[in-house]
Write a structure and sequence with these properties.
AAA+_ATPase; ATP binding; alpha/beta; binds adenosine-5'-diphosphate; Putative ABC transport system ATP-binding protein; four-stranded antiparallel sheet; single chain; transmembrane transporter activity
Length: about 220
Protein backbone atom coordinates (compact mmCIF):
# COMPACT_ATOMS: atom_id res chain seq x y z
CA UNK A 1 0.00 0.00 0.00
CA UNK A 2 1.55 3.28 -1.10
CA UNK A 3 -0.74 5.63 0.78
CA UNK A 4 -1.06 5.03 4.50
CA UNK A 5 -3.07 8.12 5.37
CA UNK A 6 -5.54 10.01 3.26
CA UNK A 7 -7.58 13.02 4.34
CA UNK A 8 -10.28 14.44 2.13
CA UNK A 9 -11.98 17.75 2.86
CA UNK A 10 -11.68 17.35 6.61
CA UNK A 11 -13.19 19.90 8.97
CA UNK A 12 -13.43 19.96 12.72
CA UNK A 13 -15.89 22.12 14.56
CA UNK A 14 -15.93 22.37 18.35
CA UNK A 15 -19.21 23.36 19.95
CA UNK A 16 -19.56 24.80 23.41
CA UNK A 17 -23.06 25.96 24.31
CA UNK A 18 -24.34 27.98 21.38
CA UNK A 19 -20.84 28.91 20.20
CA UNK A 20 -19.01 27.03 17.48
CA UNK A 21 -15.34 27.12 16.61
CA UNK A 22 -14.11 25.84 13.26
CA UNK A 23 -10.63 24.57 14.09
CA UNK A 24 -9.90 22.73 10.84
CA UNK A 25 -11.28 23.83 7.51
CA UNK A 26 -11.29 21.63 4.41
CA UNK A 27 -7.98 19.84 4.93
CA UNK A 28 -6.91 17.34 2.26
CA UNK A 29 -3.60 15.49 1.91
CA UNK A 30 -2.15 12.02 1.50
CA UNK A 31 0.89 10.54 3.15
CA UNK A 32 2.98 7.79 1.54
CA UNK A 33 3.79 4.65 3.47
CA UNK A 34 7.25 4.84 4.99
CA UNK A 35 7.64 8.58 4.51
CA UNK A 36 8.41 11.31 7.05
CA UNK A 37 6.22 14.41 7.30
CA UNK A 38 6.08 17.35 9.64
CA UNK A 39 3.09 19.54 10.37
CA UNK A 40 4.06 23.08 11.35
CA UNK A 41 2.21 26.31 12.07
CA UNK A 42 1.53 28.84 14.81
CA UNK A 43 0.05 27.89 18.17
CA UNK A 44 -3.70 27.44 17.99
CA UNK A 45 -3.65 26.72 14.24
CA UNK A 46 -5.13 23.23 14.73
CA UNK A 47 -2.03 20.99 14.56
CA UNK A 48 -2.79 18.86 17.62
CA UNK A 49 -6.43 18.54 16.59
CA UNK A 50 -5.32 17.42 13.12
CA UNK A 51 -2.91 14.84 14.53
CA UNK A 52 -5.63 13.44 16.79
CA UNK A 53 -7.99 13.02 13.83
CA UNK A 54 -5.30 11.30 11.76
CA UNK A 55 -4.48 8.90 14.61
CA UNK A 56 -8.09 7.95 15.30
CA UNK A 57 -8.06 9.60 18.72
CA UNK A 58 -10.85 11.92 17.67
CA UNK A 59 -13.30 12.24 14.77
CA UNK A 60 -13.68 14.85 12.08
CA UNK A 61 -16.93 16.80 11.83
CA UNK A 62 -16.91 16.57 8.02
CA UNK A 63 -14.78 14.90 5.39
CA UNK A 64 -13.04 11.54 5.46
CA UNK A 65 -9.95 10.18 7.15
CA UNK A 66 -8.59 6.89 5.80
CA UNK A 67 -5.83 5.14 7.69
CA UNK A 68 -4.26 2.04 6.19
CA UNK A 69 -7.25 1.75 3.86
CA UNK A 70 -9.79 1.95 6.69
CA UNK A 71 -12.24 4.82 6.74
CA UNK A 72 -12.23 6.03 10.35
CA UNK A 73 -15.36 8.17 10.21
CA UNK A 74 -17.86 5.33 10.30
CA UNK A 75 -16.13 3.30 13.02
CA UNK A 76 -17.44 2.96 16.57
CA UNK A 77 -15.15 3.44 19.59
CA UNK A 78 -14.12 -0.22 19.77
CA UNK A 79 -13.36 -0.37 16.07
CA UNK A 80 -11.33 2.84 16.30
CA UNK A 81 -9.37 1.43 19.24
CA UNK A 82 -8.69 -1.71 17.23
CA UNK A 83 -7.27 0.33 14.34
CA UNK A 84 -5.09 2.30 16.76
CA UNK A 85 -3.86 -0.87 18.44
CA UNK A 86 -3.00 -2.48 15.15
CA UNK A 87 -1.39 0.35 13.22
CA UNK A 88 -0.76 3.45 15.31
CA UNK A 89 1.84 4.69 17.76
CA UNK A 90 1.41 8.07 19.44
CA UNK A 91 3.74 10.17 21.53
CA UNK A 92 2.69 13.26 23.39
CA UNK A 93 4.59 16.42 24.22
CA UNK A 94 4.03 15.94 27.95
CA UNK A 95 4.84 12.19 27.75
CA UNK A 96 1.60 11.06 29.48
CA UNK A 97 3.24 8.31 31.47
CA UNK A 98 1.22 6.85 34.32
CA UNK A 99 2.85 8.26 37.47
CA UNK A 100 2.08 5.29 39.73
CA UNK A 101 3.75 2.78 37.40
CA UNK A 102 7.44 2.18 36.76
CA UNK A 103 9.00 2.81 33.35
CA UNK A 104 8.81 -0.90 32.57
CA UNK A 105 5.17 -1.13 33.63
CA UNK A 106 4.30 1.91 31.54
CA UNK A 107 5.68 0.16 28.47
CA UNK A 108 3.84 -3.04 29.40
CA UNK A 109 0.39 -1.43 29.82
CA UNK A 110 -0.66 -1.31 26.15
CA UNK A 111 0.80 -4.78 25.55
CA UNK A 112 -1.22 -6.11 28.45
CA UNK A 113 -4.36 -4.40 27.14
CA UNK A 114 -3.79 -6.08 23.79
CA UNK A 115 -3.55 -9.43 25.56
CA UNK A 116 -0.02 -10.10 24.31
CA UNK A 117 2.46 -12.67 25.64
CA UNK A 118 6.01 -12.38 27.01
CA UNK A 119 5.37 -8.76 27.65
CA UNK A 120 7.97 -8.24 30.35
CA UNK A 121 10.90 -9.41 28.28
CA UNK A 122 9.62 -7.54 25.23
CA UNK A 123 9.14 -4.36 27.26
CA UNK A 124 12.71 -4.73 28.54
CA UNK A 125 13.95 -5.08 24.94
CA UNK A 126 12.07 -1.90 24.02
CA UNK A 127 13.59 0.00 26.97
CA UNK A 128 16.99 -1.28 25.90
CA UNK A 129 16.38 0.06 22.38
CA UNK A 130 15.84 3.57 23.78
CA UNK A 131 18.88 3.25 26.06
CA UNK A 132 16.98 2.80 29.32
CA UNK A 133 17.43 -0.89 30.11
CA UNK A 134 18.79 -0.02 33.55
CA UNK A 135 15.94 2.35 34.44
CA UNK A 136 12.94 0.02 34.13
CA UNK A 137 12.21 0.07 37.87
CA UNK A 138 12.20 3.87 38.10
CA UNK A 139 9.00 5.87 38.36
CA UNK A 140 8.38 8.80 35.95
CA UNK A 141 9.20 11.38 38.65
CA UNK A 142 12.61 9.76 39.05
CA UNK A 143 13.40 10.25 35.36
CA UNK A 144 14.45 13.36 33.45
CA UNK A 145 12.19 14.80 30.74
CA UNK A 146 14.30 13.19 28.02
CA UNK A 147 14.18 9.82 29.76
CA UNK A 148 10.41 10.07 30.17
CA UNK A 149 10.06 10.89 26.48
CA UNK A 150 12.20 7.84 25.63
CA UNK A 151 9.95 5.64 27.81
CA UNK A 152 6.95 7.03 25.96
CA UNK A 153 8.73 6.20 22.68
CA UNK A 154 9.34 2.63 23.86
CA UNK A 155 5.63 2.41 24.74
CA UNK A 156 4.63 3.81 21.34
CA UNK A 157 6.87 1.26 19.55
CA UNK A 158 5.37 -1.65 21.45
CA UNK A 159 2.88 -2.58 18.74
CA UNK A 160 5.45 -2.08 15.94
CA UNK A 161 3.23 0.64 14.50
CA UNK A 162 2.94 1.20 10.77
CA UNK A 163 2.62 4.89 11.51
CA UNK A 164 3.89 6.94 14.42
CA UNK A 165 2.35 10.28 15.31
CA UNK A 166 4.41 12.54 17.53
CA UNK A 167 3.05 15.77 18.98
CA UNK A 168 5.93 18.15 19.72
CA UNK A 169 8.24 15.24 20.62
CA UNK A 170 11.09 17.62 21.45
CA UNK A 171 8.95 20.41 22.88
CA UNK A 172 10.01 19.96 26.50
CA UNK A 173 13.56 18.78 25.91
CA UNK A 174 16.96 20.45 25.87
CA UNK A 175 18.96 20.46 22.64
CA UNK A 176 21.13 17.45 23.42
CA UNK A 177 18.22 15.29 24.57
CA UNK A 178 16.13 16.41 21.59
CA UNK A 179 18.83 15.12 19.29
CA UNK A 180 18.70 11.66 20.90
CA UNK A 181 14.91 11.47 20.64
CA UNK A 182 14.93 12.67 17.02
CA UNK A 183 17.57 10.07 16.16
CA UNK A 184 15.38 7.32 17.66
CA UNK A 185 12.40 8.48 15.58
CA UNK A 186 14.36 8.49 12.34
CA UNK A 187 16.07 5.17 13.18
CA UNK A 188 12.61 3.64 13.50
CA UNK A 189 11.62 5.09 10.14
CA UNK A 190 14.78 3.78 8.46
CA UNK A 191 14.95 0.39 10.12
CA UNK A 192 11.29 -0.59 10.38
CA UNK A 193 9.83 1.59 7.61
CA UNK A 194 7.52 3.26 10.12
CA UNK A 195 5.78 6.30 8.65
CA UNK A 196 6.52 9.32 10.79
CA UNK A 197 4.16 12.28 11.22
CA UNK A 198 5.38 14.95 13.62
CA UNK A 199 3.83 18.16 14.81
CA UNK A 200 6.68 20.46 15.68
CA UNK A 201 7.88 24.00 16.30
CA UNK A 202 11.42 22.71 15.95
CA UNK A 203 12.53 23.85 12.49
CA UNK A 204 15.63 21.65 12.59
CA UNK A 205 13.43 18.61 13.13
CA UNK A 206 10.99 19.74 10.42
CA UNK A 207 13.87 20.18 7.96
CA UNK A 208 14.84 16.53 8.47
CA UNK A 209 11.46 15.24 7.27
CA UNK A 210 10.77 14.64 3.59
CA UNK A 211 7.68 16.84 3.53
CA UNK A 212 6.40 19.83 5.47
CA UNK A 213 2.70 20.70 5.73
CA UNK A 214 2.13 24.19 7.06
CA UNK A 215 -1.23 25.12 8.54
CA UNK A 216 -2.60 28.42 9.70
CA UNK A 217 -6.07 29.17 11.04
CA UNK A 218 -7.10 25.56 10.37
CA UNK A 219 -6.18 25.61 6.67
CA UNK A 220 -3.19 24.28 4.78
CA UNK A 221 -1.22 27.29 3.58
CA UNK A 222 1.76 25.43 2.14
CA UNK A 223 2.61 21.79 1.51
CA UNK A 224 5.72 20.26 0.01
P1 LIG B 1 -2.18 23.77 17.91
O1 LIG B 1 -1.81 22.35 18.16
O2 LIG B 1 -1.82 24.24 16.53
O3 LIG B 1 -1.67 24.71 18.97
P2 LIG B 1 -4.87 22.94 18.65
O4 LIG B 1 -5.29 21.90 17.70
O5 LIG B 1 -4.38 22.51 20.00
O6 LIG B 1 -3.77 23.88 17.95
O7 LIG B 1 -6.06 23.96 18.89
C1 LIG B 1 -6.69 24.66 17.83
C2 LIG B 1 -7.85 25.46 18.37
O8 LIG B 1 -8.87 24.57 18.82
C3 LIG B 1 -7.51 26.34 19.56
O9 LIG B 1 -8.22 27.54 19.42
C4 LIG B 1 -8.02 25.54 20.73
O10 LIG B 1 -8.36 26.38 21.79
C5 LIG B 1 -9.23 24.85 20.15
N1 LIG B 1 -9.52 23.56 20.79
C6 LIG B 1 -8.70 22.49 20.88
N2 LIG B 1 -9.30 21.46 21.50
C7 LIG B 1 -10.55 21.88 21.83
C8 LIG B 1 -11.68 21.28 22.49
N3 LIG B 1 -11.64 20.02 22.93
N4 LIG B 1 -12.79 22.02 22.63
C9 LIG B 1 -12.85 23.30 22.18
N5 LIG B 1 -11.84 23.93 21.54
C10 LIG B 1 -10.70 23.23 21.37
Amino acid sequence: MNTILDLHDVSKIYKSGDRTLKVLDSISFSIDTGSTVSIVGPSGSGKTTLLGLCAGLDRSTNGTVELHGKRLNGLNEDQLAAVRNQYVGFIFQNFQLLPTLTALENVMVPMELRGEKNIKSRALDLLDKVGLAERGHHYPTQLSGGEQQRVSLARAFSNQPQILFADEPTGNLDAETSEKVVKLLFDLNREAGTTLVVVTHDLELAAKTQRIIRIKGGKIVEAS
